[in-house]
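Structure Section — protein described below
Tokens — whole-number codes for backbone shape
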Amino acid sequence: MNIPFLPESAPFSVEQRAWLNGFLAGVMSTQNGASNGNASSSGVATASTVEAPVESEEDFPWHDSTLPIEERMKLAKDKPKPLQLMAAMAQLDCGSCGYVCKTYAQAIADGTEKSFSKCTPGGKETSQKLKQIMAA
């Protein structure tokens, strides 16, 4: 399934685009195949219609919601701080925080996001781990 995302040239701020991308990812993931995942007919670009630098799944081996947080943190041990922060999250890309996991982690790492408690599926465990990573 292609999850839609807004291109960098969309007329939104970084925060707005991140929120919208998270929202769209959540909507598309809850459709469970009800659509072919191609939202380009509604004017939203999809990964198949816009070229964007995309890391391979191998770059995020912890992006598996079935892995316990301890296992995800082991996989991200020697990675840069934004990727360690991402590994601490619930890995659902649900958009409940207004981001997807990767953009929420980046916003925390670069200081544009101050709240460590927005990953509601990850709960207190994620919030505590995010604080611990940022304190290191």
Q: What stands out?
A: Confidence is low (pLDDT under 50) at residues 34-54. The chain is about 40% helix and 0% strand. The CA atoms of residues 6 and 17 lie 7 Å apart. The radius of gyration is 15 Å.
